[in-house]
Amino acid sequence: MLEVKELTTKYITRYNEDVYAVDHVNLKVEAGKSLGIAGESGCGKSTLALSLMGYYFAPLHYTSGEIFIDGRNITGLDPDEVRKSILGTEISYIPQAAMNALNPTQKIISIIEDVYEAHDINKTKKEVRAIADECCNVIGLPSEVLDKYPVELSGGMKQRTVIAISVILFPKVLIADEPSSALDVTSQKMVIKMLKTLMDQGFIKSMIFITHELPLLYNVTDEIMVMYAGQIVEKASAKEAVFDPLHPYSKGLMGSIIVPEKGLRDVKLAAIPGVPPNLKNPPSGCRFAVRCKYTRPECMASVHIRDLEGGRSYRCIIPDKELRETYQREANQNA
């Protein structure tokens, strides 16, 4: 449903400096499947989300690579064509701070009608309302919400309303950029259940879920990609990424989060030292090398991408067997 090949995008600063926030990213999402993208703040997750839609505006600029949605290459299309025929219908986006994304001067049904009008979809107001009613029913919103202004809604209702608007045109791919980050645990669970229901009901065909919490993705996605400093450092099934991370950064990310899952809840928290590299002038070798406690001299000069069975891969010069032995030895010492 979505295939990305060697996608590279950059920000151009006011001083005309290039910041490569997405660097040669490859990914694939099949129909009926969901992909999780995890990483700490500033690693490029949200920039990747914006880049996947093929709609660029300063200071973000396309550099190279290709994006295919259901076999159609959308890279290089005219921005007006992307806005009318791609965004919302082929690929849609739930932004961060979704609760602040609604126009406070319009009723919800008016916002939805504007979506149809902007995409030149010829439907009567009665037909639009019928679709909106159905969508509200699926995500657990009362139909009365359609006739209210955003200020009349609670935070959780605003969140669900933005999700409803994002899927109202039945997009093939939905990108959810940290949709649960500002919510309490109960509301997070509701949002996750809602997104799964939208896939089951056919409102969306596939999904990309972005967050900095790896364990959260275990309950939402089929596959997880871990991102660091603009690059994908590990790709694995959700179970493998959470319970058997290989890349030292993935391992550190899991170790820095409180996890209620059995087998992980008793693991002591550990911070990742240092800070990510400056992407104006990134290191030539492994970008995590300066923060990694397993760094070797060759890490500073080159990077080795290791492909394992089952489509799993990670970006590190250390073989997976050696990494697992090291992690097990450290776990035994800390027990």
CATH architectural category? 3-Layer(aba) Sandwich
Can you tell me the overall shape? globular
Unreliable stretches (pLDDT < 50, length at least 5) are none
Q: What pattern of helices and strands is seen along the backbone?
A: EEEHEEHEHHHEHEHEEHHEEH
Fold and architecture overview:
- The protein is an alpha/beta fold and 335 residues long.
- The chain has one domain: P-loop containing nucleotide triphosphate hydrolases (Rossmann fold, 3-Layer(aba) Sandwich).
- 31% of the residues lie in helices and 22% in strands.
- The protein has 10 helices and 12 strands.
- The strands form 2 sheets. An 8-stranded mixed sheet has the order 6-7-8-3-9-10-12-11, sandwiched between helices. The protein has a 4-stranded antiparallel sheet with strand order 2-1-4-5, covered by helices on one side.
- Strand 11 and strand 12 form a beta hairpin.
- The longest helix has 16 residues, at 185-200.
- The radius of gyration is 21 Å and the shape is globular.
- The model has no long low-confidence stretch (mean pLDDT 88).
